[in-house]
Amino acid sequence: MTSQVSSPAEQSGEAETDEAVVGEQRTAPARQGGEKEVRRLERVIIRFAGDSGDGMQLTGDRFTSETATFGNDLSTLPNFPAEIRAPAGTLPGVSSFQLHFADHDILTPGDAPNVLVAMNPAALKANIGDVPRGGEIIVNTDEFAKRAMAKVGYETSPLEDGSLDGYRVHPVPLTTLTIEALKDFGLPRKEAERSKNMFALGLLSWMYHRPTEGTEKFLRRKFARKPEIAEANVAAFRAGWNFGETTEDFAVSYEVAPATQAFPPGTYRNISGNLALSYGLIAASRQADLPLYLGSYPITPASDILHELSKHKNFGVRTFQAEDEIAGIGAALGAAFGGSLAVTTTSGPGVALKSETIGLAVSLELPLLIVDIQRGGPSTGLPTKTEQADLLQAMFGRNGEAPVPIVAPRTAADCFDAALEAARIALTYRTPVFLLSDGYLANGSEPWRIPDLDELPDLRVQFASGTNHTLADGTEVFWPYKRDPHTLARPWAVPGTPGLEHRIGGIEKQDGSGNISYDPANHDFMVRTRQAKVDGIQVPDLEVDDQDGARTLVLGWGSTYGPITAAVRRIRKEGGRIAQAHLRHLNPFPRNLGEILGRYDKVVIPEMNLGQLATLIRATYLVDVRSHNQVNGMPFKAEQLATALKEAIDE
Q1: Which of 645, 630, 629 is nearest to 565 (CA)?
Q2: Which end of the chain is more exposed for a tag (fewer CB within 10 A), N or C?
Q3: What is the mean predicted confidence (pLDDT) over 60-68?
Q4: Terminal C-alpha separation, the chain
Q5: Are strands 445-449 and 476-477 parallel, antiparallel or unpaired?
């Protein structure tokens, strides 16, 4: 006999997920021999929170990896300070990792955690406002000393003053239990304390029936040079699991079945946006049969691409860590001139420094990928937080008329396909291309289906190999700016090819011959030709999801795809009618965008900026779009976005 039970979200009045209403959950049949009750849930949102030195990112990453192995759909949101080691025990020093996993298709890391693991008072205070009433809180009681609580403004202990009565609190002395579990290893107390995150991981792994073998293998591999540390972490991990199994405080564990219906058949792996982008660049170079060259200067949150590509010399990848941003793109542009698929990676402040060389790439008409992992600005701003505020910089942030195509991925996994598309445009049209990702996509992760090789586009190009123009006197010559009539791309002449010597540099060139030219009419022609080349880039038509003849369209770009789609699903679940479209190509826009905008009475554009796409849409199509903007360093929450969209529909 089974009985109906509710999920933590339902008990807190938050039964609706980001994508669908949670259905019934049922308790597994009671087991004999005093075994604990197991409840089946459709989805869970867990947030690990502690000091930036407590290993919360590692803990969340390991839980995510095992969840991916298990077959759940998932989405993550790492959130950490910009400082390398923020002050311990303070609110600015709190690091967190949120994971949403489910037995069905999901799109966001979730609006609010069902479970909060708080390693100290600062972690509790910084995150308690996001936990719905009735949610579970696992607290490391060892850290709740008077001094630690006073540091974050607690006059009395929240574990004793009744302020947490609306939650299901599990007080666990994580530090003490970890030290006790490792007493036979002979480690100093401080060294043993560092494994408390593995104890917490073991406890959560027991609670949600996560696989354990992968984590144990990971720990032994990570600490291969220090086997005693590896075994201590494994012991702490196992101790956390055993604590959940034996303690009376955790009377229930939970199961979230694999998302068997959420994915098409194939081989999947968990992947972050920066890793997917790195793999996309490598795939593009192989499909183009060109060496990949990265000229880059480290900057958060783009540095992981440099780190990853440096591992793949076996695929013909060359990485150059330059002394500054300008040198990085200068080297990349030189590699493009030499016949490589050239890339430079950065974030917003680095784009500003690279702007002159981007203009040079426009003038030289060479293929170059500029990968901008956007972050909060201006200036240094919020280096570890996300934002979409570089769109107008990518569009116009150069002197003179210097048009550059812009491509933006929509999800972490989509960064792979966006890299291939950016490479296609750059190689086909001989132009620099912006790829606008952001910190949310870069650090977040989700399942990714590994594509078959025959699914990848053919990006091979032909280098110029001989003369291409006949002078009036019959002389055969090479003209570096003689264009393909279909793409307006100029020939790509690799240095050293006999007979193809030509001038290179930033001064205006004469159409065709490439000689230096100050002729006003020629300059006007070249400016208009470069613009026409970008305007003529072939991009797919924009697809619209409109099943009910809605009168309101929500239009997005980049990483807002997940929250927007989740909000649209909520509205439709409640009987509302709304259409959705999402832009990958921001310059040029898809050919049918104007016609689509004209179909709807209202167009709403949510952006993590103050309305940059809205500005472009208004100027280009004279449509009075409505902006919904957020610039707090965090992605949209689906519930808040759904409320804003419903208000727009009802006006």
Answers
A1: 645
A2: N
A3: 97
A4: 50
A5: unpaired
How crowded is residue 467: how many other Cβ atoms within 10 Å of its Cβ? 13
Q: What are the b/e assignments for 482-503, b being 16+ CB within 10 Å?
A: bbeeeebbbbbbeeeeeebebe
* Cα separation, 32 vs 29, whole angstroms: 9
Q: What is the pLDDT of residues 6-35, one digit of tens each?
A: 333 333 333 333 333 333 333 333 344 457
DSSP state of 93: G
Burial 617-628 (b: 16+ CB within 10 A, else e): bbeebebebbbb
Instruction: Answer whether residue 5 shows pLDDT above 50.
Output: no
DSSP annotation string for 194-223: TTHHHHHHHHHHHHTT---HHHHHHHHHHT
What beta strand segments (E) does 80-164 contain? Answer: 94-102, 115-118, 136-140
> For a pLDDT cut of 90, what percent of the chain falls above it?
92
Query: Can you give the C-alpha Rg of the chain in angstroms?
Result: 27
pLDDT score of 1: 30
Q: Is 320 exposed, middle or buried (0-12, 13-18, 19+ CB in 10 A)?
A: middle
Measured CA to CA, the distance from residue 610 to residue 587 in angstroms comes to 19
Which residues pair with residue 45 across a beta bridge?
100
Beta-strand pair 94-102/406-407: unpaired
The pLDDT score that the predictor gives to residue 234 is 98
Average the pLDDT over 253-277 and give the result: 95
Q: For the whole model, what pTM was predicted? A: 0.93
Q: What is the mean pLDDT of residues 268-296?
A: 98
Q: What angle do CA 355, 360, 362 make, to 5 degrees?
A: 95
488: Cβ–Cβ under 8 A, 6 or more apart, which residues? 429, 529, 532, 533, 536
Question: Residue 154 corresponds to which amino acid?
Answer: Y
Instruction: Read off the DSSP letter of residue 376.
Output: B
- Which pLDDT belongs to residue 64? 97
Q: Which of 375, 441, 371 is nearest to 411 (CA)?
A: 441
Which positions ≥6 away from 166 have C-beta within 8 Å? 133, 134
Question: Can you tell me the mean pLDDT for 261-274?
Answer: 94
CA–CA separation, 593 vs 598, rounded Å?
9
> 344, 315 in Cβ contact below 8 A?
no
Tokens of 398: 């150069």
Consecutive H or E run containing 176: helix 174-181
